[in-house]
Amino acid sequence: MPGRGDVMHEPATSARTDGDASPLPDVRATVLALGVVFGDIGTSPLYALKECVQPAHGVAATPDNVLGILSLVFWALILVVTVKYLTFILRADNEGEGGILALLALVPERLRAVGSPRLGWAAALGLFGAALLYGDGVITPAISVLSAVEGLAVATEALAHAVLPVTCVVLLALFAVQRGGTAGVGRVFGPIMVTWFVAIGGLGTYHLARNPVVLGAVSPAHAVRFFHDHGLHGLVILGSVVLAITGAEALYADMGHFGRRPIRLGWYCLALPGLVLNYFGQGANLLLHPDAAANPFFALVPRGPATYALVALATTATVIASQALISGAFSLTRQAVQLGYLPRMQILHTSRETAGQIYVPAVNWALAFGCIALVLLFRESSGLAAAYGVAVTGSMTITSVLFYVVARHTLGWPRSRALPLLVLFLGVDLLFLGANLFKLLEGGYIPLLIAAALFTTMAVWKRGRALMAAAFRDLMVPLPQFERRLHRASDRLPRVPGTAVFLTSNSEDTPPMLAHHVRHNKALQRHVVLLTVITERVPRVPPAQRVHVTELGPRFYRVLVHSGFMQGTSLPTLLRRAVGSGLLAVDPDDLTYYLGRENILATEAGRMGRWTEGLFAFMMRNARSAAAYFDLPADQVVELGLQIDL
């Protein structure tokens, strides 16, 4: 009896580990991906090296320090982005979709405690990782745009007062254009990001040619020597080095928007060369001009018109940088809704070509509010940098653990193949995570607070749905027993024209609403359909497999509708399709949909507890209605109320 808290079933998984989900040609998709996926990691040169040599917590820009930091940055890009994500993690796609929740959907059900009020350990890890990404999604636009606009103060102190207002206006404009969808955004942003990577690579090459000694940083010996010289403080600096790889998790989360191959092409052909050349160019310039440590990136060009031009390009690029996390948050939200970890909400499809391109208004404007609030709170990108990194490294660590579980239990890899990768990935991830824990009191607690709030929300929603399903099962009558009652009452129970469709989360027994309807109305429609929507653990279900019909008796049907966790579910369209194919013998224009509207009492008598049940009740009241979510015509819906104490 799904109302606002309907429970969906999850049958066996289907993991795809080869091929590419994107229908777009590679070159076009690569350009679009550059405009959406690579913005975050692509604009890290604006602030990563700057934070490593800041007087407050960095090190002096001496030759040994600069070579050590460059070596750490280079090997972070290689080990984390190229080896971990591009080579391995992107292979664990769920029918072309990526992200931590798509990875969680591949974990065996026994490890996720599907159907149970409690969270399995794997589900708890996955949900907290997803919650950390939302925290990252709030910080990324704020620090990226603010760090670029701060270039105005580098050009002239007279514009320092304009940094905060300009940043807020740019952020508002960014979130306002999200309704156009990632394809529309990518068509505009893609060519700009191509220009960005060419420009930063060109600037880096120019300064690298003036002082090629920094090429020696390719040797990991400089990174080892850096830690030997600085001890514990070297670990603190590593917390700033991690800024160079923020956005790696977004590459995986956004895979469903464009496909695996375009992301790899964009990285190897443009993003990686541009980033390495720019970081090394900044280092080369720092060795010649140590005073450039105040802002190594903008020191790559002379002060004056060149600075203004670079600020304009950087601001545009950082707007694009925010896109990776915003579109990733949209994908995560839809996956969480479909998998039963968040309430239903409005999700708009923005592309006819790619099903993964969506817009979620509630998430969009919540992120907008959070970003602007952080900008006004911290006022400088250096302050935000302290809050950055904890969320990124936390989600990276969780992804490594879940990848090992999926590799072993779903993809069937032997332990001898999966375990060494886990050790390698965790060795790097935990080192970065430990380094960022030093920044907890400086602002690192902010993404953790955001993540804790969202994790609690998802855990409470999951528990409430499971307890509600159990309450419904207690109210349900076995179908054979109900059929016998119906048969005994057939002489005195009028059958009126039309078809009654009862939405139910239970695909075996009689929904309480059907018994309630017969008991109180003393009549029943000529045709009865018991309809259950089942969310599969794959992104999309082929059209031919979406609807299954079983005739339970004369004019009495059980209909199972299968949806992937990245698919919309328009029930009138699917039922009309079933009628057209001969699976269902009803009039599609004469249907009445019966839904349950649950009123959660939230008393001490329930199993959830007053405050958790109160939170669940609040989410239930504010969730998108089942009628709107399943695209049901408003004039064909009847809602029947039921009071429940969980």
From TrEMBL:
InterPro entries: K+_transporter (IPR003855), K_trans_C (IPR053952), K_trans_N (IPR053951), Kup (IPR023051). Keywords: Cell membrane, Ion transport, Membrane, Potassium, Potassium transport, Symport, Transmembrane, Transmembrane helix, Transport. It is a multi-pass membrane protein. It comes from Nannocystis radixulma. Residues 1-23 are annotated as: Disordered. Residues 31-481 form the K+ potassium transporter integral membrane domain. This is Probable potassium transport system protein Kup. Residues 497-645 form the K+ potassium transporter C-terminal domain. Belongs to the HAK/KUP transporter (TC 2.A.72) family.
